[in-house]
Write a structure and sequence with these properties.
The protein is α+β, with helices and mostly antiparallel strands and about 160 residues long. The protein has four helices and five strands.
């Protein structure tokens, strides 16, 4: 099983502490590490596809629409200057979006004098254990994101 499938199984078993909300095409979770405060992921429910273009058009559009709603909710919940979106998949071929709330100075002097994608920051800095939210912080983040998601989904 892949890491994303493992995380989805934890959601189904009620043991994933980062789980926020289930949508039609995927699951919303807060990222384990929060160097980029408000970092969230949207995990596609079906492991059988590794490319966005493999989804039939109605499913693809729904997945992208829901990702956009999650991004808007994260922006409202965490107040970044800009949202970055990534659908990568070389590490885990299971379709999943990375949603990074960005702020000036969040990569220090890395990149082009502090400007660039999140990956300009060394992995050891992004994934340092000091970036993991406390249980209390995690609950606040989940509540904030879920509140904004529910507002958008009811609109």
């Amino acid at each position: 099983m892949c890491l994303i499938c493992d995380r989805i199984e934890m959601i189904k078993n009620g043991t994933n502490p980062y789980f926020v909300k289930e949508l039609e095409t995927g699951y919303v979770v807060i990222g384990d590490n929060q160097h980029f405060y408000g970092y969230a992921l949207f995990l596609y429910k079906n492991h059988n596809y590794s490319e966005l273009f493999q989804l039939d058009m109605p499913e693809r559009l729904k997945f992208m629409e829901e990702m956009s709603i999650v991004a808007e909710a994260a922006s409202k919940a965490f107040g970044p200057e800009k949202m970055n979106y990534e659908l990568l998949g070389m590490g885990d071929a299971h379709l999943h979006w990375h949603l990074y709330p960005r702020r000036k100075g969040d990569i220090g002097n890395y990149g082009n004098n502090g400007v660039g994608p999140v990956w300009c920051l060394p992995f050891d800095k992004i994934y340092d254990d000091s970036n993991r939210p406390s249980a209390e912080e995690l609950e606040k983040m989940k509540d904030a994101l879920k509140t904004e998601l529910e507002k958008l989904l009811q609109a």
